[in-house]
């Protein structure tokens, strides 16, 4: 099992147990292959009324040892086409940015960024909400961002392809 | 050994099946589900702990345990509602869902609750933020145990929670509490949380018995109703008649779920520092008065923010309240837990008298004595301030928040203790605020909440969309969206949520 010790690991264990006892509707979580408490596996069900509807997107949450002082990373394993998801699958969303302010990104206030009181469920719900509501101010996938802005139809078609792919992968 | 498998289809549909052994193949489970639920094996997708279950594996190979929950999703997921089989009522939170019979449409307390939540007393967001940042607050929010003990302490609440696991879940879900707290302190988060709220609301509404529990809670709280209290109030018949959510947004209707947050004036406890034993006493008074107030029954306040003494006295006479007090004062573990809070420790360190007091169970009990509390109230009244009267009462309001209350005043949070770091609110700040504060237009947000509930299917759903969304249409018009057809389209697609309709209209999606 996990080797995690200390407050962060305990916090994660509790949240995982909670999420398994009362699974949310829109996603499911468990530990990854290595069974480390710092590495979670997620299955996100594409939100209804969005192009992602019907998709089953696999992702990992990787927590640092310094959790909850520092935020986890979220990485989609399934192919994702979204302005705020890098082609590597890494999610770029303000609440997963380390606390404090960023000189490169001054419009992002401390409130929007990671705070230790943010729970895992909140992270995932934020990411799900991001799926339906991309933030074109901080694009991680420039092509997707441009397409989202200029060619909404083409964007949706591309997303639908990833949805079908995710269904076939099951 | 037979094990039970809980299946979760969506927010409204769960069921469980019993299988002979966890060594069953996933394909075997699917066959069982096909027989039970008439969902073709080929259409079933089972998701457990973040993984899709593969047909040729056993449940045990995924570490499945008795009573665990598996997501069951229909796999023929084309555009049409992948999550809801046709024979179930679709989640009303789903914008795409058609009107479905609502379990108890006329009893929706939220429909009428939200509009009146714009009553005076909405805390200043800055104060709120300061209060939320306090370590004590954060610890409390992130500690499910505390919430748990608070639930268990109150027999009424516990009964409610036992009957309705979802209510329990809502009350002790740290994430949800946190979200609400954040919402209160951050206008942006408020807007974001709104989406989650809609979901929660629909869950509550669709839960069999949920509405009844709510209603029961309401009528129980009616005991604390005092017509003389400006913002306090209980359920009134008009709650019901307005329950379809179409009423005007700012109906000055009394509603216990929204009555709580009248900011108390800066606590004497804060202002006088640690040297004054009375100050600590005031804070504790608040502690006693507020703690059991889980279902949202914060001490009634007058519009000017002073506690309504008559209403408080009435509250102190209520047997339920007394029972809760008794339980709390006789629960050393809970007191201990509260004492372990760094804030409290700081407080007791700087005030030896306080420490002595807190460590003396007899003393605590005496202090929780209603007569004592009443005397304290009177004393405070004579002193011209209300000390920490709000006290943990704020938490009471918060419990209500589990059922979507608007969080209590920040000074109430401060009242329990003496967070020296948190600046004592000035009298001016702590007087009730108008519904529009610092540019944050609550009435608009609340209108949206109302819109969300208005979208819940009601028997009167033969209204035309124009009629149903008349108010939201007016808002859109006022914002300069002139194309009525497009506006109606957007409102229908967003279930009457003005904010999202605007996004939609702007985004052209």
Automatic annotation (TrEMBL), chain A:
<dbReference type="InterPro" id="IPR050113">
    <property type="entry name" value="Ub_conjugating_enzyme"/>
</dbReference>
<dbReference type="Pfam" id="PF00179">
    <property type="entry name" value="UQ_con"/>
</dbReference>
<dbReference type="InterPro" id="IPR023313">
    <property type="entry name" value="UBQ-conjugating_AS"/>
</dbReference>
<dbReference type="GO" id="GO:0016740">
    <property type="term" value="F:transferase activity"/>
</dbReference>
<feature type="domain" description="UBC core">
    <location>
        <begin position="7"/>
        <end position="168"/>
    </location>
</feature>
<dbReference type="InterPro" id="IPR016135">
    <property type="entry name" value="UBQ-conjugating_enzyme/RWD"/>
</dbReference>
<dbReference type="GO" id="GO:0005524">
    <property type="term" value="F:ATP binding"/>
</dbReference>
<feature type="active site" description="Glycyl thioester intermediate">
    <location>
        <position position="92"/>
    </location>
</feature>
<comment type="similarity">
    <text>Belongs to the ubiquitin-conjugating enzyme family.</text>
</comment>
<keyword id="KW-0833">Ubl conjugation pathway</keyword>
<protein>
    <recommendedName>
        <fullName>UBC core domain-containing protein</fullName>
    </recommendedName>
</protein>
<keyword id="KW-0808">Transferase</keyword>
<keyword id="KW-0547">Nucleotide-binding</keyword>
<dbReference type="InterPro" id="IPR000608">
    <property type="entry name" value="UBC"/>
</dbReference>
<keyword id="KW-0067">ATP-binding</keyword>
UniProtKB/TrEMBL annotation, chain B:
<feature type="domain" description="Ubiquitin-like">
    <location>
        <begin position="3"/>
        <end position="73"/>
    </location>
</feature>
<feature type="region of interest" description="Disordered">
    <location>
        <begin position="77"/>
        <end position="129"/>
    </location>
</feature>
<feature type="region of interest" description="Disordered">
    <location>
        <begin position="447"/>
        <end position="466"/>
    </location>
</feature>
<dbReference type="InterPro" id="IPR006636">
    <property type="entry name" value="STI1_HS-bd"/>
</dbReference>
<dbReference type="Pfam" id="PF23195">
    <property type="entry name" value="UBQLN1"/>
</dbReference>
<dbReference type="GO" id="GO:0031593">
    <property type="term" value="F:polyubiquitin modification-dependent protein binding"/>
</dbReference>
<dbReference type="InterPro" id="IPR029071">
    <property type="entry name" value="Ubiquitin-like_domsf"/>
</dbReference>
<feature type="compositionally biased region" description="Polar residues">
    <location>
        <begin position="447"/>
        <end position="464"/>
    </location>
</feature>
<feature type="region of interest" description="Disordered">
    <location>
        <begin position="227"/>
        <end position="253"/>
    </location>
</feature>
<dbReference type="GO" id="GO:0005829">
    <property type="term" value="C:cytosol"/>
</dbReference>
<dbReference type="InterPro" id="IPR009060">
    <property type="entry name" value="UBA-like_sf"/>
</dbReference>
<feature type="compositionally biased region" description="Low complexity">
    <location>
        <begin position="86"/>
        <end position="97"/>
    </location>
</feature>
<dbReference type="InterPro" id="IPR015940">
    <property type="entry name" value="UBA"/>
</dbReference>
<dbReference type="Pfam" id="PF00240">
    <property type="entry name" value="ubiquitin"/>
</dbReference>
<protein>
    <submittedName>
        <fullName>Uncharacterized protein</fullName>
    </submittedName>
</protein>
<dbReference type="GO" id="GO:0006511">
    <property type="term" value="P:ubiquitin-dependent protein catabolic process"/>
</dbReference>
<dbReference type="InterPro" id="IPR015496">
    <property type="entry name" value="Ubiquilin"/>
</dbReference>
<feature type="compositionally biased region" description="Low complexity">
    <location>
        <begin position="107"/>
        <end position="120"/>
    </location>
</feature>
<feature type="domain" description="UBA">
    <location>
        <begin position="464"/>
        <end position="508"/>
    </location>
</feature>
<dbReference type="Pfam" id="PF00627">
    <property type="entry name" value="UBA"/>
</dbReference>
<dbReference type="InterPro" id="IPR000626">
    <property type="entry name" value="Ubiquitin-like_dom"/>
</dbReference>
<feature type="region of interest" description="Disordered">
    <location>
        <begin position="410"/>
        <end position="442"/>
    </location>
</feature>
């Amino acid at each position: 099992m996990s080797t995690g010790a200390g407050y962060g690991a305990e916090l994660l264990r509790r949240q995982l147990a909670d999420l398994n006892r009362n699974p949310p509707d829109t996603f499911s979580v468990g530990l990854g292959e290595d069974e480390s408490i710092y590495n979670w596996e997620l299955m996100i069900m594409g939100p209804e009324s969005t192009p992602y509807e019907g998709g089953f997107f696999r992702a990992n949450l990787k927590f640092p040892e310094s959790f909850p002082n520092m935020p986890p990373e979220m990485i989609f394993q399934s192919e994702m086409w979204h302005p705020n998801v890098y082609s590597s699958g890494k999610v770029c969303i303000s609440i997963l940015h380390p606390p404090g302010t960023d000189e490169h990104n001054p419009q992002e206030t401390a409130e929007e960024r990671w705070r230790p009181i943010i729970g895992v469920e909140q992270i995932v719900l934020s990411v799900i909400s991001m799926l339906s509501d991309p933030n074109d101010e901080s694009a991680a996938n420039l092509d997707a961002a441009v397409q989202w802005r200029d060619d909404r139809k083409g964007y949706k078609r591309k997303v639908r392809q990833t949805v079908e792919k995710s269904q076939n992968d099951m | 050994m037979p094990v039970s498998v809980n299946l979760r289809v969506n927010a409204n549909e769960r069921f469980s099946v019993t299988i002979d052994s966890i060594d069953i193949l996933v394909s075997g489970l699917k066959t069982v589900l096909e027989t039970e639920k008439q969902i073709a094996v080929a259409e079933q997708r089972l998701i457990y702990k973040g993984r899709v279950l593969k047909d040729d594996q056993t449940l045990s190979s995924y570490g499945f345990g008795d009573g665990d929950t598996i997501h069951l999703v229909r796999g023929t997921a084309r555009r049409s509602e992948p999550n809801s089989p046709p024979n179930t009522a679709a989640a009303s939170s789903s914008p795409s869902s058609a009107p479905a019979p609502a379990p108890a449409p006329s009893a929706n307390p939220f429909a009428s609750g939200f509009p009146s939540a714009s009553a005076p007393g909405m805390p200043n967001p800055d104060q709120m933020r300061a209060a939320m940042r306090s370590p004590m607050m954060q610890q409390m929010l992130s500690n499910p145990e505390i919430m748990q003990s608070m639930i268990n302490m109150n027999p009424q609440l516990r009964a409610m929670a036992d009957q309705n696991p979802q209510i329990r879940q809502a009350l002790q879900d740290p994430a949800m509490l946190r979200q609400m707290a954040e919402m209160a302190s951050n206008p942006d988060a408020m807007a974001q949380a709104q989406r989650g709220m809609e979901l929660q609301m629909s869950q509550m509404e669709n839960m069999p018995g949920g509405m009844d529990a709510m209603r029961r809670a309401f009528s129980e709280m009616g005991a604390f109703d005092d017509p003389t209290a400006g913002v306090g109030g209980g359920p009134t018949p008009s709650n019901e008649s307005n329950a379809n959510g179409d009423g005007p947004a700012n109906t000055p209707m009394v509603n216990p779920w929204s009555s709580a947050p009248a900011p108390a004036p800066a606590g004497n406890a804060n202002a006088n520092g640690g040297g004054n034993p009375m100050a600590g006493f005031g804070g504790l008074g608040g502690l006693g008065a507020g703690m059991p107030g889980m279902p949202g029954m914060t001490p009634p306040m007058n519009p000017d923010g002073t506690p309504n003494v008559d209403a408080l006295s009435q509250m102190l006479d209520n047997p339920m309240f007394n029972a809760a007090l008794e339980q709390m004062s006789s629960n050393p573990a809970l007191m201990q837990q509260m004492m372990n809070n760094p804030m409290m420790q700081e407080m007791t360190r700087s005030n030896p008298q306080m420490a002595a007091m807190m460590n003396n169970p007899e003393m605590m009990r005496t202090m929780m004595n209603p007569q004592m509390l009443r005397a304290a109230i009177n004393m405070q009244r004579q002193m011209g301030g209300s000390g920490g009267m709000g006290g943990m009462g704020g938490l009471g309001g918060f419990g209500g928040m589990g059922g979507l209350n608007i969080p209590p005043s920040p000074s109430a949070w401060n009242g329990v203790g003496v967070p020296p770091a948190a600046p004592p609110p000035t009298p001016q700040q702590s007087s009730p605020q108008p519904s529009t504060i610092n540019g944050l237009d609550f009435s608009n947000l609340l209108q949206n909440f109302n819109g969300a509930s208005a979208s819940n299917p009601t028997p009167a759903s033969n209204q035309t969309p124009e009629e149903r969304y008349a108010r939201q249409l007016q808002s859109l018009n006022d914002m300069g969206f002139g194309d009525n057809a497009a506006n109606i389209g957007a409102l229908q697609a967003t279930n009457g949520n003005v904010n999202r309709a605007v996004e939609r209209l702007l985004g052209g999606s």
